[in-house]
Amino acid sequence: MLPGRGRNGHxxxxxxxxxxxxxxxxxxxxxxxxxxCGGDRNYQRLTGQRRFTLLxxxxxxxxxxxxxxxxxxxxxxxxxxxxxxxxxxxxSAMLRDAVHTVALAVLAAGGAGSRTALEAAVLAVRAAGFDxxxxxxxxxxxxxxxxxxxxxxxxxxGAGLAIELHEALDPLAPHLAGVGRESVLLQGARxxxxxxxxxxxxxxxxxxxxxxxxICSDDVTRLLAAAARTPS
Length: 232
Prior knowledge:
Order of helices and strands: HEEEEHHHHHHH
Domain Co-chaperone DjlA N-terminal: 119-222
Organism: Streptomyces iakyrus
Protein name: TerB family tellurite resistance protein
Number of strands: 4
Largest sheet: 4 strands, antiparallel
Strand order of the largest sheet: 1-2-3-4
Radius of gyration: 27 Å
């Protein structure tokens, strides 16, 4: 059989005559975390119109396609769900705010009057990105938090404080690996342990932190027990 005269050759000739083409239209832009590049990039949100082509020329509409997200750097297309992943800058801000909220919640459970607990909280918050955090600032914020939630120091985690924790941790949890979620919980545990064993109120707050981070209760108990056995 001569080259190009078999079934594959016929299909190749037909594909040069008939085909489909997609015309893309920009429908928005912004910045996203590109999974192809592995970093923050600009993007365009595209919608497409598919058409049959004859000899390379569009002739008949075939319907809409997309929308898709096109990376401005690598030009790869992704589903729009890729926009649910925070950018690196946004993720860092979410993590910083989460650690700050956990520190305040643990201090509100009884450590705000302890110098060692405040020092541990300041170290955690500064490491998370609030470089200018001070003990005085945290103590003032705990007082404001208690006034806002109607909570008294040393009480179990009430509804107002639980809402504050969930608002800070719920959006972050899906984007943290298991070890990352555990790290946030353990930072709270170290603050609680800085001035002695856990109080019931501190355990209650840390259990709420674990639940917001989607850590099961058995693992929360295990992690808190391991932290208590680790020398500070």
